[in-house]
Amino acid sequence: MDDLRPRRVPCTRNLAHAVAAAMLGLLCLGLWGSSAAPGEGEAMWLWQEGEHYTAQRGSTGADRKRAATRGVCLGSGWGASVDHYAEYPIEWPRAADARLILRYAREFAGSATLQVRLDGEPVGGLVGLESTGGWGDDGTHWRWHKVALGRLAAGQHAILLEIEAEASNVNIDGFFIADPRFGAPPDTDALRALLTRRLHETVAAEPVEVRTLLLPPIARKEPVTEYRSLRDTIAALPDDLRYVIEKTARKANCYLLKAFDVGQPTKYASDFVWHDLRKEKAWQLPFGGCLGVVNPNSDLNYLIGFASGGGRARFHFPASPTLHLIDALGYRCSAAPRVEAQVTFIPVAGDTLQVVVALRNTGPGARTVSVVQAVARQPLSLTPSQRYGGVTVTAGRMRWAGHDPGNDVAMAVLDEWTPAADERVGALVATLAASEPSASVTMSDEPNGKPWSDGELGACQVRYEVKLPARGERVVVLALNMRRFSEHEGAPTSRGTVFYPKETEAEAMAESARLAVATLGNDWRRSLRDRIARYRDLPVIALPRPTWIADYYACLELPRANTFSPWGTIKHPYYNFCRAHGHEPYGWWSYGMHGHEHLSTFVTNVTRPELSAFHLRGHFQNQSADGGFPYGVNHQSRPGEHTSGATCPFIAWEAWTAYLWSGDRDFLRDAYQACLRDYGDFWLGTRDRTGEGLVHWANWWETVRDDPDLPTWTLSGGAEKQEALDLNCYLLVVERTLAEMARELGNQDEERAYLAAADKRVRLMNAYMWDARDRCYYGISEIFPDDKVNVKDISTLFPLWAGLATAERADALVAHLQDPASLGTAYPVPTLAKDEPLFGAQWHWHGSNWVEMSWLPILGLQRYGYYDEAARLAEINTRMVFDTIDKISHFREYFNSITGEGVGLYDYIWTAMPAIFITQIFFGIEPTAVGLRVMPALPEGWDDISIGSLKVRGRRVSVRVTRDPKATETRAKVNGRTWPVEGGRGVFVPWDKIGRRVSVDIVQPTRIAEIHQPPWPLPHLDHPRVPPHPRLRDQALIDATRADADRAHRELKK
């Protein structure tokens, strides 16, 4: 290891404190006001955070205050009693006069009384800190108080703050130790800017180090090194499962993560997602194309390479994917001439990867091959470099790297920053271990770069020499652990989760090394078997576009990939919208589940409807006392008294559909009870000011289409002042769904009541919302019920999905969809019609295509018998999503409705919807309460598709659909027997006619005559006569609404 430049460093608690200032800057003893020792003409100062004490009594934990320097301070009860204190170490560079400048906040009247002590001796008299009018959430709450310290000798000192009177509660943001020339910044912004600037200077001046480490001895479990090629493992699988595994290996998606349901549970606080460097196409990466993975949260790359004959390691070489599951990734390649290698990456935990390198020498002579693992980060800057959309990179400079010869582990430590990169909050240690003894450890600026010599550090590379006998085989097991930590309490949290547990550097290093070494003993053969076994839930599918097969499987994987194990208060597995792209704890989109993201359950049902039930139970568990489902739920959620923001009322429909796929009556009973309260107690009880039965939103962000300037909302003076078309379509579906639930549970009286409520809503909406001139439905102002909101958007088509429109009115709605100047864009359905003034093809909800919402019009077309149009839209939307996946290796949040380009966040859970388009529209597979309906609608030009081993209510369903240009009518067989054809298109098979397996074969003619009619019987729209809409009498509300609506109309005309 002559390239290591070793330095003997004992790994002890004292070491951690000795290097703390160099490693963590601001979070340690203090931040100097100069990047070097201050000169004679400069004002000396250092800053000490109040919550970064060495000891304290009285505070229950760091207190979060928005206007504190770091958003946290010493508080939470500190100062209430005379036995409270806080102690801080400081180091002063040279003898000089000094004073302490304390930043504090206190809301209570009167003074807080404390004593300042320097090295145990009191400084001056008692200090009185007057009330500032608040505890620190506002910048005006903070004040400075100065205490002269006298002549301060160079060296280490201790500052002690002691409370001297009861009820002296005070929040301490921090303090300066400074010479008399220094002036404290005037406000929070200036203070933060000063500290950030000095921090960056300090970081730039800090040394980068290479160390030889002495960690505590770590016991090793014998690794599994019996040779078993992954190719042989896959070849031995049952035919259906082998087909799925081989097709998923070819998908374009690049993520790899720890699945929630295999092995140990996921841990929200330490979850790292990886991107395959050979598949990642969205960003130009410094190690793109190498064999390895990159973690977007840290921008840290983990590479596997090979060398022979003592040459340089190769990381970039031809390789073929043999496996790519959510939680396993395998490549086959050549490690050296006549040496085959199979490299398999397995996330055994959210923070730990196991890599199995299986080598086979096919030659007649013995060979020695070097297997290399490396962690690398492009040393672009001191602070994090942001490059991954929707994921905040928090890791900055590689601070040091080292090797422990006793345990044979290598480590690299990187700085960790806040999302704004204005403060270091901790560190990230990456540890490498292997089943083979290391032959060399190299620290360099990049893999295969020059050995480190006081320059930038970018790579830690370990080489292992593996001897292979003639035609022999060997297995090498590698491991990587990633661990975040902070040496101080009060590191920022998100969603109530501590991502930087308080540990010394020594403790973090020891635990990371222990986890990496323990991973070597993981039975990787069993891990692979368990991971592959989960894919028995996926059907076998054949489509005329071969790449669509892998993309279909990618859709089926996405909801499971975005799911976490239960964590915090949530009792069931739950998802974050974009976990598969990268665990992002700082964005709003990463905090949990909404009713509209639950539309992804339509995809989840295809493989695991029990997981759909778990996702939906998150809302059941957190239902408010008033019956409402909260807008979003996550691991912090608790049931509340009132629903301040409601989630979109899709949940009853989603739960009913999950039941239809699973047949789980316990879930159905729970869902029915929860959803009837949400409907009756909440929506009807709190959102109907006029009492006629039509309801309104509470605000624009409840609506799903959460653009406050969307004309659909502004033209009525706000979403809360409108009986919206979309919301009342949702409620109509809820009423019909509750009726079906009641019927299934044997509650006939309740079934009739909900059907009557649905009939009433149908009459009201047709009477008040239909516009005879424009031939479509509009929402209406609740304040001025004669005023329709004359804006065509995606909800214009929701009456098809809800079964609101008559056959004649349905024809008129479809005409809008087929009009290229309106809703018929190249990639429909736009969320705002093209001929509306504020249309933008990729402007969020102002005209882009959101595939989860396009599902409603597609399903509505199918329900009304517009099968060809439904297939056309489903094909366009599927092609739009799949083209994006194949181009950039990711799903996107929404799409440009004219070009089809993806926009917004990556790997968003609801963009998996093409899987249900294919399953329910193309194949026409739809379970009902009494049987299985199969009503296929093939896209233009498709002649043969098949799906097999599809799980429906514990049965395995196979469907094949072909087109015969010579046929004049549809023919069907079920399990080889001729079967009656329904609607000239497909079949219906009662559940009691289906055994454990059912096979459906349908042969259709090229064209099938369509009959367009409502999917439910509609009440007579004129009897009983619908009375005029009730009017509100609140004049202040009327005046304000008119002013808001008039203003919106004027703006729209501009």
UniProtKB/TrEMBL annotation:
It comes from the Bacteria. Residues 932-964 form the Glycoside hydrolase family 65 C-terminal domain. GO terms for biological process: oligosaccharide metabolic process; protein N-linked glycosylation. Gene3D superfamilies: 1.50.10.10, Galactose-binding domain-like, Maltose phosphorylase, domain 3. Keywords: Glycosidase, Hydrolase. Residues 619-911 form the Mannosylglycerate hydrolase MGH1-like glycoside hydrolase domain. One of its GO terms (molecular function) is Glc3Man9GlcNAc2 oligosaccharide glucosidase activity. It holds the Pfam family Glyco_hydro_65C. PANTHER family: MANNOSYL-OLIGOSACCHARIDE GLUCOSIDASE. Belongs to the glycosyl hydrolase 63 family. This is CBM6 domain-containing protein.
